[in-house]
Amino acid sequence: MKVLESIRLALRGLSANKLRASLTMLGIIIGVGAVIALLSIGEGAQSAITQQIQGIGSNLIFILPGSLSEGRVSFGMGSLASLSEDDAEAIADTLNCPDVAAVSPEFQRSAQIIYRNRNINVSVVGATPAYAFVRKADLAEGQFFAAQDLATSARVAVLGSGAATDLFDDVSPVGQTIRINRIVFRVVGVLEERGGGSGYGGGVDDMVLVPLSTAQTRLFGGATTRFGGRAVTLITASAVDEGRMEAAISQITEVLRKRHRIQYQDDDFTVTSQKDILGVLNQITSILTTFLAAIAAISLLVGGIGIMNIMLVSVTERTREIGIRKAVGAKRHDIMLQFLIEAMVLSIIGGLIGIGFGALVSAIVTATGVLDTQVSPQAVALAVSFSLAVGLFFGLYPATRAASLNPIDALRYE
Question: How far is CA 130 from the centre of its chain?
Answer without folding.
Answer: 29
